[in-house]
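Handout, tutorial session.
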Amino acid sequence: MTQTGKKYDLEERTAKFGESVIVLCRKVRQDNIISPIVNQLVRAATSVGANYMEANGASSRKDFINKIFICKKEIQETKHWLRMLKSSQPAID
């Protein structure tokens, strides 16, 4: 729980994030340039939640930290692909 009393459910939040990216990508008109960007974006964005789930099942504290670090890397990659998608589709906001 947070200080405001709201549940901080990262499992649910990471799942909804991946779903939101999928919904966004379904709206994008794809061509030979856009398709690989969309593919990489969906892979990175949905990987965040998958790696978070793995972290929750970690066999040790060290394993947990490693899996959380992978989540951080996937979020950074997702930011990159969102930027590339934005630059290739200026009308997307």
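The second record follows below. Compare its token runs with those of the first.
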Amino acid sequence: MEMGLKMLMGVSAIGILSLVLFVQLLNSGNPANGINYGNSHPAIAATQNPINLGEGQANGQEQVVLVKALGTGGYDKPEIRVKAGVPVKLKFSADQNSGCGRQLIISEFGVNMVSKNGETKEASFTPQKGVYAYRCGMNMFRGKLYAE
């Protein structure tokens, strides 16, 4: 009996480790490198069309972009379009029940903001032409910023 229990525990541990590795493999793609996560996330599936929030002018005025993490499990804007080479001011807030979505990271620009109790945080950066991923710390909330 003891041998059977040990074998069952070993097989269970291997199954759990395999599942963890599989999930990590699925989440290892980087949208900035052209890998598409698809529309599996409810917030991304609900919004098929990109939202253009770039409000800056070509003469160098700052573009203001607003993003909010929702308690439903995604950002209110899973895709954003701005003008490349024009400064962006990103304003970020989060619903109190948005869990890990209260954090927003854009690695390429050193952006790492946490919105506590719905407060608005701000970061400024100037993107060059390209596609940049934004995400929460656990990579569960995801979006793309297109600089065109």
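Points raised in discussion: Confidence is low (pLDDT under 50) at residues 17-59.
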